[in-house]
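Quick one: structure tokens for this chain, please?
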Amino acid sequence: MKKFLAVIVAALLVSAAVWVILRVQLANQLAAVPEFLPPTTLLLLHAPDFKHTQKRWHESDLYQIWHEPAVQAWLEQPLSRLPQSGRGGKIVEEFLQLGPKHGFVALTSLEKNEPKVLAGFHFEGGPEGAKDFMARREAEWLPKSTAAKRETIVYEQHKIETVNVPHLFLASVYSNHWFFISNDIAALKALLDRADHRQEKAEKSLQVDASFRSATKHLPAEYAAMIFVDPRPFVEKLAPLIALTGQSLPINQLQRLQRVQSLAAAIGFDHGKMRETDFVAMPRAGAEKKLVRPLLAAAGADTFFYSASQLHWSENVLSPSAPAAAGLPAFVQQFSAALNARGISPVDLRQAFGEELEITGDWGAGAPWPALLATIAVTDATRARKIADALTSVEIAGAPWTKSERNGATFYSAEPFGGFVPLHPAIVISDKMAFIGSDAATVEGAMTRVAQPGGELEKSEPFRDAVARVPAPGSAFNYVDARLLFERADAAIRPIALMGATFYPALGKSIDLKKFPPPETIAKHLSPIVMSQRYEGDGYVTESVGPVTFREATIGLAGAIGGLFIYLQEGLKAGGLVPAAAPPSPVPVMPSPAPTATPF
């Protein structure tokens, strides 16, 4: 009986020991990435679950657009010009078979301008698969040099493999289903101490750093990718770098940069939409005020863009001689010079206008181009008119302004200009609001709708659904009806593009414009893009949701316009409509002197 009890006790002890070991190993495997990194980490990129992200991506609106048969048929010609090896896709699939999670890249130090980098990922299977995958990548990526020196270093029961080639040093190690790599052996050893919970050697980690915790607490618990940046060391190096170029950074701009303590952003998916959350740790700019948004009620069914944001008039806003103003467009500098010539100061701007700027974009059915409008509250009508007089003293594209008084408001209107994209700018200053529009009819219509708002946009279902996806805005709000914008742009641009390709076939050399998908093929996957910003605790939180986020849409639109410009330019050059740069004249080759030589 005693032997039987001893066996049971021994079995229980062994089971307990195994349970503890497994729990420790599981804790090591699932440890948060910030626990591995030092508190001095300057930049961290983190992707928690690659396979889950791939699944969510396949459910997204963008992916559905990409896999529309009409879209694939349209892209068949340009895609055929790309390399068909599929090497990149094969590498991704092999990597996903490892069950990777918690992939990260971190910049931990920048002392003496020598960056120290740590990177790694967790894998589900045994280390053999990961080692084979990394060995093949190393053979492809590292330079093939006979001067490569390899060494194995044993550290706390870990085998660290190092490779040293000219201008490159790498140290890697496998530990508890983790693969780690670094260009600094000391940093890698410190990471292992934290991963193994050797308190006697491990320093504090990024997980307990106040700036990191403050920034990441505003991010969602689930995301596809996250970035954290401590900008302070970079800002310290910025002024000397700018000085090397012979320029200087205005003190107020440097102070604004120095007030930014940390940056964090996360991007992920939300029921097929993309969601982005950004946080900037910094003091509040200006007094706490709520957005009033008077123009929102005047937005109608044809409004594809609405924006409201708080303004903060800086002291050097009218200083064209400042280095920051040197790169501004010439007409902006002319406006600034005109204000200065009339003795208008930033104080006049602050006292003349409110601190909330609203912008709308309307594109009616059948209209060739959208109409843009900006409004701001007027707090001192006399100063506001003085500022408007100064601005309209500057001709735009040689077009002078005319001034008139109607119904207690002052109207300023410029002669139409612009040619292919006509503009007829107008400014109206009333006792309560200032309006600036791309044409006079837009301004007059907006004034009528503000006086008798219908609230069409606010009442629409797409707007209400989009707004419900983000918190209430505090300092900024943006809304884009992506479907309406695409449908109007398609109706305006498609006939012009097809006509151009008919008359100038070179325009369709790379892309068959006749195969461009029907608008409904893409439009059915588009929904509004909404962005909301607020000040929360110790910084600004910005959240955006849509088929793409507001930041992605802005970058994508700029890239599309630039790409379209280059494409049209190259196509017209190929068609002989735009003269190509003349090649340099050949240097004549002088023949050797000879009695029978005949000069040509």
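The radius of gyration is 31 Å.
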